[in-house]
Amino acid sequence: MPLHVETPLLQSRILGRRAGRDVWLKLEALQPSGSFKLRGVGHACEAHRERGARRFVSSSGGNAGLAVAYAARRLGLPAMVVVPESTSARARDLIAGEGAEVLVHGRSWQEANARALALLGPTDAFIHPFDDPLLWAGHATLVDELAAQGPRPEAVVLSVGGGGLLCGVLEGLHRNGWTDVPVVAVETEGAESLARAMAAGRLVELPAITSVATSLGARQVAPQALAWTRRHPVRSVVVPDAAAVRACAAFLDDHRLLVEPACGAALAAVYGDLPALQGLRSVHLVVCGGAGTTWGQLRGWIEGAP
Ligand code: PLV
Fold first, then answer.
1. Which of 27, 101, 158, 256 is the most exposed place for a label (fewest CB within 10 A)?
2. Cα–Cα dist 225/236, whole Å
3. What is the distance of C-alpha 188 from the center of its chain?
4. Spacing, Cα 161 to ligand 1 middle (Å)
5. At 87, is the secondary structure helix, strand, or coil?
6. Is 193 in the pocket of ligand 1 (CB under 6 A)?
């Protein structure tokens, strides 16, 4: 039985009025681990347990690790999650609270990932936070639900870190026959690894992550994410951190849900009526969630924003 739950698809009248178009919210923030990550991670963990894995090891900006810790507890196996120093204290506490071992290593996810791989034992399964076909197949269930819940989307708006959500949504669109539904892929300035790769026509490694949206902090996207942009309409958008955190605050007022700036990126594209959305009468927005941000932290970012 899947570890994730089916999430609601709601039309947001309040956001729709502000944006001047219909806005549909796929509320992944309501997953038990607080983000969409549980879809793919739960699927991967179940598959690895069936193949005999005795422990899950993961590297994460926070939410994938929390999903691994949640899945491990539900499946009765231990887990170890390596996070970078930039992962919030809140996220670390939540992962530890699920009973997983938390190690902090390195400035960004890349360094944490190298450490996790070095610690991998023979009966461990490695759960990648974004670059694994098992993960994408699990994330694709989000689109299967959309297909059962309502009409064909005119466009899907989502956030991009390493591109796992993008790959999963595209897999889901294609397996549901929605092969021409454009996807608006949003990143924050300082974490724009997909935008850079699309502009260069090849994978690009950012020298550092400078955005507060640390959950989007993969310095390079999964190769499959870039490959998808060559065979499906994907519009890349980059928003400033200030727009992402303001969108989180607006969404808290409008829908009473606190999400991370990683999710605020996609929200900002819709609240901000960006050019990439021009001509669209309706959008489906993946409210990817994120459990690592507190209200105090969000307020601090808003007060410190330029
Ligand atoms: N977060 C990953 C990668 O971090 C993680 O380890 O949790 N929204 C939220 C709330 C997220 O946590 C993430 C990814 C994304 C969006 C982007 O998803 P992706 O990586 O599949 O594009 C470094």
1. 256
2. 12
3. 13
4. 5
5. coil
6. no
Query: How close is the Cα of 13 to the center of ligand 1, in Å?
Result: 27
Copy the structure tokens of residue 157: 């708006």
Q: Which of 216, 239, 288 to mutate to test the pocket of ligand 1 (most atoms within 8 A of CB)?
A: 216
- pLDDT tens by residue, the chain, 306 residues: 899 999 999 999 999 999 999 999 999 999 999 999 999 999 999 999 999 999 999 999 999 999 999 999 999 999 999 999 999 999 999 999 999 999 999 999 999 999 999 999 999 999 999 999 999 999 999 999 999 999 999 999 999 999 999 999 999 999 999 999 999 999 999 999 999 999 999 999 999 999 999 999 999 999 999 999 999 999 999 999 999 999 999 999 999 999 999 999 999 999 998 999 999 999 999 999 999 999 999 999 999 876
Give the bridge partners for 127, in sequence order: 58
| Neighbouring C-beta atoms of residue 305, cutoff 10 Å | 14
Let me know how many helices (H) and strands (E) the chain has, helices first: 13, 10
**Pairing label, strands 22-27, 9-11:** antiparallel
User: In 3-state terms, what secondary structure has residue 119?
Assistant: coil
| Protein residue with its CA nearest to atom 18 in ligand 1 | 161
